[in-house]
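Researcher: We're teaching a course module on how sequence relates to structure. For the next exercise, students receive a sequence and then see the predicted structure as C-alpha cells, so they can try to spot secondary structure elements on their own. Here is the exercise chain.
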Amino acid sequence: MQKTFLIFSLLCAAGLPLNAQSKTDKGKTASGKTAAAATGTAGKTNLRFRTSWGVFLSDTLPRPEVLKLLDSALVVRDQQNHTFPVISFDFTYEKKEAYVNDTTGQPGVYSDFTGDSFKADKLPTLWSTRLKEVLQRNEVLYFDNIIIKYTGDKYYRVPELKIVVR
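Model: And here is the predicted structure for the students to work with:
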C-alpha cells in the first residue's frame, strides 16, 4: 500500500511542471484581446543592441589586428544603427601558459585570468601598452557587463564581447 502511494505521489509531482507550462487564457480581457494589447504595448519592439570593438563583433582575430584595436573604443549600436555611449565595462584577459605536471610528467596548459572594471569606453593606456607587449596566440579578451547610457536616464547592459587571438 505504501509503495503504491509513493509511486502515485512521484507521478503526480512529475506532472506538475508540465501543467504549469501549459497555455492558459488568464491574460484575456472581456473583449478577447490580451492585456498587453489592451494597454497598447503590443506595437512596441524589443530593444536589440550589438557591441563591437572597432568594427569587429565577437570573433577570432589575428594578433596584428588585435594590437591595432587595443586603443579603440567599444561601440554599441541598436537595430536602427544609432550609437550609444559606453559608461563602464569589465575586462578580463585570459593568458594561457604551458607547464609540465610534476606528478605525471605530462605537458599541460593552464589559464591565468586578469581583469578589472573600467568607467570608460576603452581600455586605459597602461592596460593597452602592457597587452601590446604580452599578447600571444590562443589568448582571449573578454568584455563583460558593458553598460550604456540610453536616452534620458536609462542605462542598459548590452551583449558582451569575446575576442580570441590567433
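Model: If you want an answer key for the exercise: The chain has four helices and nine strands. Confidence is low (pLDDT under 50) at residues 25-43.
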